[in-house]
Amino acid sequence: MEWAAVELSRAYRLLNPGCVVLVSVGDGEVDNLFPVSWNMPVRSDPPMVAILSGKDHHSYPIIARTGEFGLNVPDESIVDAVLGCGSTTGAEVRDKLTRFGLTRRAAARIAAPLVEEAVAGLECRVCQVVDLGDSSLLVAQVVAAAASPAHFVDGAYCFDNGLRLIHHLGGARFCVSDRSVEGREP
């Protein structure tokens, strides 16, 4: 297979597309949403995740103050809302949930709301911040999690019921995952 050089500023896109999450933050008075493709599970016991956030991001001080955030897993049905949340700032759009047609869902263990239209939600408490200059890697423990039983079956996503998770390709472009495949062991 022939390869062509990739511009280093876009090399990260060779590892993406990762599943996009909508990060929800809030303190009971003010809340906000922003999409993040740079997210990952870190460990299963205790359950931990990590996200990358710019320090100049409108939501960063809310996370720093509360020490928590929600991860909402959107599917294709709300891709326009995800794009809208990412192309506006909470400093100018004070209520992104309403502006983009999303519904607040009360979280069980954190103050930030979750997104009703998401297929899954994870409630997270920050336990470590890795300073990366103008951004931070936020490592958090998952303190509660819930998912649509139609789309999360036997501990894994099930695409049999039309689930189409979104993955960011850059700009306004996304792709979807819509099926699982089984590998054969040698």
Care to describe what's here?
- The mean pLDDT is 92.
- This protein has 186 residues and is mainly beta.
- The protein is globular.
- The longest helix is centred in the middle third of the chain and has 8 residues, at 79-86.
- The chain contains three helices and 13 strands, in the order ββββαβααββββββββ.
Overall geometry comes to: globular
Lateral strand order in the biggest sheet = 2-1-5-8-9-4-3
Number of strands: 13
Q: Summarize the helix and strand pattern as letters.
A: EEEEHEHHEEEEEEEE
Query: What integer is the average pLDDT?
Result: 92
In short:
The chain is mostly beta strands.
SSE map:
Elements: E1 21-26, E2 31-36, E3 39-44, E4 47-54, H1 60-66, E5 68-73, H2 79-86, H3 96-99, E6 104-105, E7 114-115, E8 120-131, E9 135-147, E10 152-153, E11 156-157, E12 165-170, E13 173-177
Antiparallel strand pairs: 1-2, 1-5, 3-4, 4-9, 5-8, 6-7, 8-9, 10-11, 12-13
Give structural attributes:
186 residues; mainly beta; 7-stranded antiparallel beta sheet; two-stranded antiparallel ribbon; 13 strands; globular
